């Protein structure tokens, strides 16, 4: 056995080997030690190898999926070796023969299909990148849904594309492994190198043609060599990991480069589009706006937010569909009620195609198609073209649904081996087997009554024992009759005892065999019928996939309409102009959080264009006043509009945005040796080197990570470059108040500030953005609000006053800051002593009750208090 284990392990050296032994998957040697530590299970030993104990651990087969999920999340790959024959068959070859085993599947992050291993509302992409001479391409699949796409992708675009897709695993040529490691690592994906031969474009084309059973790929589109290479490599990897059982992949779709808004990884992270900075979904844009009721709709929403369209026709069609459901609220609610009963047909299809499905996947298809037909009936000819096309894709499944209704029970078991999922009356042979299995005694009793009537012997009995099986028993007196003609032609003598004679018949022997095998026969018939139903569904898989996509489209459109109605969002005007005019704009995530606490969100306007002149708002104001919120909300409004959604504003006019850049917040990257300032500069450089005149740029506090004059210089030059070279629409927040003078020098720059109000030394944040410039940052007041010790705050005020006084007086003295203040020679402010309790005057005041005093008593009390504190 150990020789077999080592032989299989040698073929999958880079994976943990789950070696099936009865009801357990067992691991040995280094695999056992690694798995025991990762899964927190017991490490034991089994026998010896080369004189050393063999470490061993195992997990039960019935609960293996949970352990698989843990291992995959911790970065392991798992090869699953199953028993390929019955142990009884192995024993026929000899008592010491080993049961044949082989790997049936290689489980990796990008090839998961089990419901328990996947997030229902998110894609699980496997990607591959290939470069052939001066061409390069990125392809990706989700084998759990059949999604298969490819896009031209030079190396410079690989990082943004991976940030958009967030794949779990990326396949690369081993020749490019070193060059791509950093990019793939930054995307959060696992990287899997394949041989150069896997990326050969000629072999790749043949693999793809074999997969789709076509002579040429021309029917799917024109693919260059790099695209064909990448697609072929991903198919080969799937063939390797699925051990020949290829998933049900839709025909590949080629995406046009530049079809969506360019958003780099830093911008996605800063804007928290699909993931919050904390790492989870809570607090992200998608978590705040997701009102879809199906898994397919949720996945479509994530795709739309990750890749807002730049195609005006597509944007307008999406907005028209949302507008229709906004106006037809009752229809939308009825559809949403239907959608809540719709299972995830895409993933059910995938499991069936990979032989990992079960009866519940059959009923999921049945339920989904039945709901699809009902929904199509609700949609009239008056709905927009986009919805009408979706409705048309929901039709044509009546015969299939009727057949599945006839064939399947309402609530089937999870596994085929459990049986009981085929409905009674669907198959006569199965009904007979079940009757024999469940009603064997009744069948025998009926035969007994028939034989008693045939012989006229009412005392005749059919009995059973372990030696003879079923037999007919009668007395010796009656036996003579059965041994005589013509009954002796039917009844065959078996045994004579002292008082009884036993017989059998050919029908009774046959019935005995049927009864004994009825349970296994019923299950075998159900398995055969399951295979037939599965084949019937897979034959219609292309149309079922279209229906699943149509359901996702309707779900997302109705969800966006529900969001628009519920949150008072407006339909944006999106056109070819350079406009960016927002009235009453709001941040959807912040507004949602404030609603929970019962606080209102202060809406603000933003107008970045005047005619054809590029416009930049230079935004000043104190910390905590809402500058970052204002920056982000305008970026998110643009993103939502081009994703095809209504937006959180009273009115929005947005000229098509080609690129979205955001440099908000600060973080270091210690793993790559980058300080906070270096990260800031790298991200700023990427913006200045890429932004075109249709970009929307959001910049916050450029230059703050270095010395004051260095930072001011960098921020100043950055703003000039955006204005003169990039000519982009931009919001530029800064604490360098000196930069407000640029509005007089640069025509396209305007000053804006977040308003505050001072009252008795306190600062009150109004969260209102107004035209004009701030002259202070109120940092000391914010520090006090943050809880800095009083002594520190008071000392900071002294230093600030001295600095501001020195700046006003100017001068040419070459003294240091220490000399000017002097900070370290001056006596620090004495912190106030903590109060020791109420004073005598306070105690006297507490004892007074003005409502119960006469004017004379009140005057006397006032004189007493005055005397207590002195004249």
From TrEMBL:
CDD domains cross-referenced by the UniProt entry: ABC_MutS1
Origin: domain of life: Bacteria
Chain positions recorded as ATP binding sites: 621-628
UniProt-listed SMART domains: MUTSac, MUTSd
Keywords: ATP-binding, DNA damage, DNA repair, DNA-binding, Nucleotide-binding
PANTHER family recorded: DNA MISMATCH REPAIR PROTEIN MSH1, MITOCHONDRIAL, DNA MISMATCH REPAIR PROTEIN MUTS FAMILY MEMBER
Record family assignment: Belongs to the DNA mismatch repair MutS family.
Known function: This protein is involved in the repair of mismatches in DNA. It is possible that it carries out the mismatch recognition step. This protein has a weak ATPase activity.
Stated name of the protein: DNA mismatch repair protein MutS
Taxonomic source organism: Albidovulum litorale
Taxonomy of the source species: Bacteria, Pseudomonadati, Pseudomonadota, Alphaproteobacteria, Rhodobacterales
Gene from which the chain derives: mutS
């Amino acid at each position: 056995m150990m020789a077999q284990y080592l032989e299989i392990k040698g073929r999958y050296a880079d994976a943990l080997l789950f070696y099936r032994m009865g009801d357990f998957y067992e691991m040995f040697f280094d695999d056992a030690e690694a798995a025991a530590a990762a899964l927190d299970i017991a490490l034991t030993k089994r026998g010896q190898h080369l004189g050393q104990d063999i470490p061993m651990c195992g997990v039960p087969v019935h609960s293996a999926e949970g352990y698989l999920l843990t291992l995959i999340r911790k970065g392991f790959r798992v090869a699953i070796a199953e028993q390929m024959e019955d142990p009884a068959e192995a024993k026929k070859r000899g008592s010491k023969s080993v049961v044949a085993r082989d790997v049936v599947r290689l489980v990796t992050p990008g090839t998961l299909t089990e419901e328990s291993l996947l997030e229902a509302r998110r894609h699980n992409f496997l990607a591959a990148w290939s470069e052939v001479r001066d061409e390069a391409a990125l392809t990706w699949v989700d084998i759990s849904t059949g999604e298969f796409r490819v896009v031209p992708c030079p190396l410079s675009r690989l990082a943004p594309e991976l940030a958009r897709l967030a794949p779990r695993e990326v396949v690369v040529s081993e020749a490019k492994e070193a060059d791509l490691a950093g990019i793939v690592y930054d995307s959060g994906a696992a990287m899997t190198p394949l041989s150069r031969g896997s990326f050969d474009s000629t072999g790749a084309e043949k693999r793809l043609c074999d997969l789709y059973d076509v002579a040429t790929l021309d029917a799917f589109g024109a693919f260059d060599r790099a695209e064909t290479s990448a697609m072929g490599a991903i198919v080969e990897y799937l063939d390797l990991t699925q051990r020949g059982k290829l998933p049900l992949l839709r025909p590949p779709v080629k995406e046009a480069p530049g079809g969506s808004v360019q958003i780099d990884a830093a911008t996605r992270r800063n804007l928290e589009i699909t993931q919050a900075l904390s790492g989870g979904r809570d607090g992200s844009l998608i978590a705040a706006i997701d009102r879809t009721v199906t898994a397919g709709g949720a996945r479509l929403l994530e795709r739309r937010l990750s890749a807002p369209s730049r195609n005006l026709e597509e944007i307008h069609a999406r907005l028209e569909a949302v507008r229709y459901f906004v106006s037809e609220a009752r229809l939308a609610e009825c559809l949403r009620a239907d959608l809540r009963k719709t299972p995830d047909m895409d993933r059910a299809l995938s499991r069936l195609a990979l032989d990992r499905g079960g009866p519940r996947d059959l009923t999921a298809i049945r339920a989904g198609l039945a709901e699809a037909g009902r929904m199509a009936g609700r949609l009239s000819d008056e709905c927009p073209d986009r919805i009408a096309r979706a409705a048309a894709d929901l039709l044509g499944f009546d015969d299939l649904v009727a057949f599945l209704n006839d064939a399947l029970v309402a609530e089937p078991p999870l596994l085929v081996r459990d049986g009981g999922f085929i409905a009674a009356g669907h198959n006569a042979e199965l009904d007979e087997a079940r009757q024999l299995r469940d009603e064997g005694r009744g069948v025998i009793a009926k035969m007994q009554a028939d034989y008693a009537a045939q012989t006229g012997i009412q005392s005749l009995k059919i009995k059973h024992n372990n030696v003879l099986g079923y037999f007919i028993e009668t007395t010796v007196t009656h036996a003579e009759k059965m041994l005589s003609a013509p009954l002796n032609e039917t009844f065959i003598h078996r045994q004579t005892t002292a008082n009884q004679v036993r017989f059998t018949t050919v029908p009774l022997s046959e019935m005995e065999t049927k009864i004994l095998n009825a349970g296994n026969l019923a299950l075998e018939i159900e398995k055969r019928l399951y295979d037939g139903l599965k084949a019937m569904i897979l034959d219609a898989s292309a149309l079922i996939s279209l229906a699943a996509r149509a359901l996702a489209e309707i779900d997302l459109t109705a969800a966006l309409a529900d969001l628009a109605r519920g949150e008072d969002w407006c339909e944006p005007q999106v056109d070819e102009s350079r406009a960016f005019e927002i009235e009453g704009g709001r941040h959807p995530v912040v507004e949602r959080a404030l609603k929970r606490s019962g606080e209102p969100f202060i809406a603000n306007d933003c107008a970045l264009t005047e005619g054809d002149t590029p416009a930049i708002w230079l935004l000043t104001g104190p910390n905590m006043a809402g500058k970052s919120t204002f920056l982000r909300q305008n970026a998110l409004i643009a993103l939502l509009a081009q994703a095809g959604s209504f937006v959180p504003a009273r009115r929005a006019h947005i000229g098509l945005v080609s690129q979205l850049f955001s440099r908000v917040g600060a973080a270091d990257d210690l793993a790559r040796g980058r300080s906070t300032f270096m990260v800031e500069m790298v991200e700023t450089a990427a913006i200045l080197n890429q932004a075109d005149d249709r970009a929307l740029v959001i910049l916050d506090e450029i230059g703050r990570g270095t010395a004051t004059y260095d930072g001011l210089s960098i921020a100043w030059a950055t703003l000039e470059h955006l204005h003169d070279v990039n000519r982009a629409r931009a919001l530029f927040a800064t604490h360098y108040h000196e930069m407000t003078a640029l509005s007089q020098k640069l025509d396209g720059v305007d000053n804006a500030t977040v308003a505050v109000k001072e009252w008795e030394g306190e600062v009150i944040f109004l969260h209102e953005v107004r035209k004009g410039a701030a002259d202070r940052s109120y940092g000391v007041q914010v520090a006090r609000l943050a809880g800095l010790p009083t002594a520190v705050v008071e000392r900071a005020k002294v230093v600030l006053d001295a600095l501001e006084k020195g700046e006003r007086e100017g001068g040419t003295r070459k003294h240091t800051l220490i000399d000017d203040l002097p900070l370290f020679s001056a006596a620090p402010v004495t912190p106030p002593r903590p109060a020791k309790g109420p004073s005598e005057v306070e105690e006297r005041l507490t004892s007074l009750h003005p409502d119960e005093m006469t004017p004379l008593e009140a005057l006397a009390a006032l004189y007493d208090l005055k005397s207590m504190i002195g004249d």
